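Lecture 7 notes: from sequence to structure.

We start with a single chain of 258 residues. Read the sequence below before looking at the structure.
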Amino acid sequence: MIHAVLKYDGSFEGFLCCVFVSYQEKLKVVEIHPPGRELQVMFAEVRKVITEPQKAKRVWTSLKQKATVPGLRDLKYAFLSELEGIELELLSMIRYIIAEAIPVDRDFSHPAVLKVAQTAKKVAREKHRMEAFVRFRLTRDEIYFAAIEPDFNVIPLIKAHFKNRYADQKWIIYDLKRNFGIAYDLHEVVYITLDIDPAIGISGAPEAYFHTSEVAFQQLWAQYFTSTNIVSRANKKLHVQHLPRRYWKYLSEKNLQK
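Now the structure, written as tokens:
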């Protein structure tokens, strides 16, 4: 059996094509690499896997016949974690699923199944927090804009939530860490890339980019938050428990007080 390192384009379809190739060519896969990740294994054959939608579809169709809905969700969510080595864990879980006659994607005695489920749970938590803490700011172009820097690649997971919740206004949510985002034009949500000036920030409203009403609103909100806050009754431990510090950068009331 050939020991191989597979390099792919970083997409979920591309990863599924890696799975297809590993079966088709009977490979012992020792690493799977998205763009930008350095090789860790020296003595193995490096293969570049081309993304072919039909091959990816065949793998996913096979999985749908073998796995439960929660198991399939965990595979997608864990992939979006972008953690180093997660592709090998996913491949191990997929091989286990396909090899068994009954659904085993909830068999947490299997190391890969457990790892994938734990990772998927972290991604799901980040998804929910982004849905809760994203703050839109009205730009001079009359588009609501939100910048985020999530730990995991949750942009694909929050599309439906924001399309349903803000269906009557144009908006953009942009991941500064991964340099891509989603835009809604009152009809559909599309993926975009922009040349973002770092001065735009995560919160606040620099006058060069945001509508004058947005600047005034954020200042008013900070004043309201300060006036209604009862310092003597503050419970910082409980506050941080429900609102971790790393999410404070999204909140105007936290940043405008500085």
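The first strand starts at residue 2 and ends at 7. Keep this in mind for problem set 3.
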